[in-house]
Amino acid sequence: MKYLLNFILVFGVLTCNVFGQGNDPVLKGIVSFVTSNNIYVKFDQTKSIGIGDTLNLASTNTACLIVKSKSTSSCVCSVVEDCEIEKGDEVLFKYYIQEDDRPKEQKKESIPVALETVTPVTPLYKENIRGRISASSYSNILSDRDDKHRLMSRLSIDADHIKGSRFSFNSYLNYRHILDQTETSSLEKNSFLRVYNLDARFDATPTLSFTFGRNINPKISSIGAIDGLQVEKYFGKSYAGAIVGFRPDIFDYGFNADLLQYGGYVGTIIDKEDFYSQTTFGAIEQRGNSDIDRRYTYLQHSSTLFRNLNIFSSMEMDIFSKVNNTTKNNLRLTNLYVSARYRFNRKLNLMLSYDSRKRIIYYETFQTEIERLLDDDIARQGARTRINFRPYKNILAGVSYSKRFQSDRENKSDNIHGYVTLTKVPNIGGRLSLTYNRNESNYLESNIGSARYSRGFLNGRLNTDLYYRLVFYDYSSGIESSQQHYFGSNLSYNINRKLLFSISGELSTFNNENNIRIYSRIVQRF
Predict the structure, then answer these.
(1) Is-contact 378 357, C-beta < 8 A?
(2) For the chain, how big is the Rg over CA atoms in Å?
(3) Which of 1, 97, 121, 311 is 20 to 30 A removed from 438 (C-alpha atoms)?
(4) pLDDT for 255-279, tens place per residue?
(5) What is the Cα–Cα distance from 453 to 422, expressed in whole angstroms?
(6) If you write DSSP's letter for every residue of 430-453 in order, what string do you get?
């Protein structure tokens, strides 16, 4: 009996040790905040979690988050593929206790057991390719004038990290051809190819990138397209960049080697649970035929507070002038734009914006017109407010007011716009929208009312629109007032998930004129 008791005691100790090591410890966390860029997860402690580790969503037990950075009690993560994460979701992290982390007393008594350690391997770069190609035709059949027809095609490709490599490619091209158009001095050709974006990017490291070609940098979007080289480097939450290249030609948007430009910028990102912001400051010098054409600084800022308040602002300050061969470093505010959008709740949001713009003066390009341009150096200002609300479940409504003004009282404009949308029409289904727009300027007063009915069929694959628009024009210069009627319809069909065909037609009546417009389009996404 004594030997039997000893055997049972030893067997129990060994069993506890072996099976105790087979259960992987698990940390449980809760998603505390979700932004468009990051997911924040709260833990009791994060000592066992490393940068690059994956976290599992408890409801599906699948790896959905990758840890980017951490503190003692929370992790900042990015989403894996198409996982859907919401605030309050439970997250699990399975980790393995290393031998050095065990108490010394336990290390002496435990029996070595081989544990299979699985380290999740996350590729440094992930391929993401999406594109869109479309072809369209536009015909204007006029009763009292010559008919007009044109063809247009667009191609856009965003290929990030092709085959998991460091190389990416982006493009956006537009081709237009006018049919049966006699070429004149005012329209030298009938075919137009516009390259808005065509670039290749190489990520030397996750924080250092080189972009070559025509590219619009989102951090300095007010500059527009840049033909040349752009370099950007991140230092944690801060970054710096440099550009050297050329401006597109101001007349045909083609390449022009006489329009050299170069400069640099610095910026910082603040990314917290309740606040996100990005601010960029830079300076650019643009030349025309090797002489300084324009030199200016710019500031761009965007931020989101508590996911309810969104702010965007941009500013350009010219710091150079050249008049009658005399150069000065005068300050001239040429562009200021500020907008704010506040979301009170799911049913109500408000937007406010203000802009002040002056004509951009390129002192070499327009040297024969400098005095005239400076005489007209008046800021064209504008202010706008818009409110959208949902008074009932199936009703959307909104109203906006915008005003344009300047110190000489020219080019003024007051515009009021309102709409009401019934998202589900009783008994017959579909969507009904009513809109009204009133505009008053120095020379014209217009009133436009419209009604549009939309409905989908075949589980949303087929969509139809019918609309009517009534327009009144009242001219202050003595021209006779006019009234126009527009009747139109649109039909679009999703042939499959990535192929769309649509056609629309419109009849407009004006006095004794009856004009017909037909627009057709086919879109292939990939």
Answers:
(1) no
(2) 31
(3) 311
(4) 999 999 999 999 999 988 889 999 9
(5) 10
(6) SEEEEEEEEEEESSEEEEEEEEEE
